[in-house]
Description:
Layout lengths: L14 E4 L5 E6 L1 H4 L4 E7 L6 E5 L3 E8 L1 E6 L2 E6 L3 E4 L5 E5 L5 E8 L4 H8 L7 H11 L2 E7 L5
Antiparallel strand pairs: 1-2, 2-3, 3-10, 4-11, 5-8, 5-10, 6-7, 6-9
Amino acid sequence: MVAPAPTAVPPGEGRTVQGPAGGPLTFKVRGEQTGGRFLAIENVIAPGDGPPVHLHAAEDEMWQVLEGTLRFRLGEHDAEAPAGTFVFVPRGTPHAFINVGDAPARILVMFSPAGMERFFDAFAELPADADIPAAFRRLGAEAGMEVVGPPLRPDA
């Protein structure tokens, strides 16, 4: 791991892969660049899409909603998150989100410390015919993430 250095990533730049929530995911800064301290990705979320309820054993997770509106499950309660909303979830807290709008949402997702790159890298390598829920569960477990419930529903 290299020592962290100041980094500026212009709009539209960074390595882009297929994300687990239906749209492209762009790495803005990876753990290899931050001495393992931080991961930041920009993610596009399709309408009605989002991950299953899950938790991270070793990482805190944060989001800045840049465009669109998401609904978050944060432990035992839900929170509406229109553009401009910041969300923080400490490690060990069950959470999920869903795009409740009718257009793609765009979010900045951050993890501290870094480490979830291995999940996103592995997910991007899945074949087109992969069983996505099973792969999310398996690859998540390999990265220290536990699926504890189904994805949120738009009407619930």
